[in-house]
Amino acid sequence: MSSQPWYPPFPPSGGTQDVFFPRGGAGDLPTIVAGEGAYLVDDSGRRLLDVCSGPFLANLGQGNERVLNAMIDQGRRLTYTYSRTTRHRANARLTERLAALAGPGLERSHLTSGGSEAVEMALKLLRAHAVATGQPERHRVISLMPGYHGATLQTLAMNGDIASPALWGPLTVASEKVPAPLTFRAPSAEAAATESWAAFEATITRLGAEQVLAFVMEPIGGQASGVNVPHPSFARRVRQTCDRYGIRLVFDEVVSGFRTGRFLAAQHDPEVVPDVVVLAKGLAAGYAPLGAVLVSAALVEEVAAGPGFVVSHSYDANPMACAAGTAVLDEMVEHGLIEWAGTLGARLRAGLEELARRSPLVGDVRGRGLLLAIELVADKATSARFPGDADPGAVIRRYGLDHGLLLYSRRQNSGRYGDWLLIAPPLVIDEATCDDLVDRLGATLAAATDEVLSPGP
User: Fold this and answer.
1) Are 259 and 215 in contact (CB under 8 A)?
2) What are 383-400's pLDDT values in tens digits?
3) Where does residue 257 rank: exposed (0-12), middle (13-18), buried (19+ CB within 10 A)?
4) pLDDT tens per residue across span 273-298
5) Contact by Cβ (8 Å): 150, 218
6) What are the sequence ranges of the domains in the chain?
7) Which residues of 98-111 are buried (b: 16+ CB within 10 A; e: fewer)?
8) What number of other Cβ atoms are within 10 A of residue 134's Cβ?
């Protein structure tokens, strides 16, 4: 293979998606030409372990024959038909699988093309339900700061991102934000949970409980919070508060679904059953665009008994995407990959904790299953954050390429809440690959330490 890039960094016409990115950082993106399992190959022949499964979705890695064949078979039988004018069996098969895995209270699935769209669809459905049940005043949404729910206009307005309002604010309807129960640097995880829940209660009082439609949260965080795992008391108190005021609790599991050792992160605590769960990413594992809104049959019947809910997009419940999703679920269930994420995640976490003991850059290791993160610190003794003009994750990502790792780095909130790297490899990796990942990451951190900790120009 040629070691030269296959096109100039910024061609006069055409180009890949990164022509829209800031000029400072797009030039070092590798050009991927092939993939196998958990690895990608770039145009210089480097074999890169996909540490974050893309953005936390390529759960089965590259080239899964079962999924590819299911899509081909479906495409030959039926490629497309519109969900508002027809039904098809691929839709029914997928939603049946989802209901069986999600369990009681989440029997119905509204399918979409991805996570952002699914979060918006969940809000639209809840708004339609509020109107259908005589509560038209309910329209306010509360979410966490920091947090992430998507890149459509409405989900941008829900994200816990301090910079977002300046750019997108005039086009959006902002949610109310309450502080997320961040555990690192807090007196304790339980204290952080209590403070966040109290802010939630105060926000409801200020807005008027009768105005609040939904509270949207990630049960385990993603990139926005560095896989923050709240103390269990937070979700339990939030569930009780929502029940008291008739507010709907929405779990955004676009990132956490399938990765924590259970089908849903929500299933780790039977005391907290959300009203809505949103899935995407790993649901089709990168083989097709697919998201889902899971809700109870009772809620759907209340809407359908009135005006119904006929909001749709052209690709809702696309037959080929449904076939991909069903095959992905079958593959995960039959090979025990969801449980494997919990088992191997414990091994990976132990390896990361050993790295944390050796590296001056790592202040915390957290997460669950194969959804983990390392918190990067400027001073390990004080857990000091990096300055706003630094980007330690981007530096480490660059060194990772030299050590055969494709890391994902996207700094959040200019480091106000911290800096981290997510470690979320495909669920198909084995023990040897897990150990190799830890070894390579250790070498990467060691090589990057001086540059990351240097004061800069």
Assistant:
1) no
2) 999 999 999 999 999 999
3) buried
4) 999 999 999 999 999 999 999 999 99
5) no
6) 17-63+336-453, 65-334
7) bbebbeebbbbbbb
8) 8
How many angstroms separate the CA atoms of 71 and 67, rounded? 6
Is residue 194 within 8 A of residue 202, CB to CB? The reply is: no
* Dihedral-angle region of residue 347 (phi above 0 means left; psi in -120 to 50 means alpha; beta otherwise): alpha
- How would residue 1 be classed by pLDDT, with cut points 50, 70 and 90? very low
Sheet bearing 419-423, strands edge to edge? 362-368, 371-376, 419-423
Task: For the domain covering 65-334, report its CATH number.
Answer: 3.40.640.10
* Cα separations in angstroms, 37 against 40, 134, 235: 8, 51, 36
Q: List, in order, residues 6 or more apart from 181 with CB less than 8 Å away.
A: 189, 192, 193, 195, 196, 197, 228, 230, 231, 234
CATH 3.40.50.300 fits 17-63+336-453, yes or no: no
SS3 of residue 394 by DSSP: helix
Check the CA dihedral 326-332-338-341 and report its sign: negative
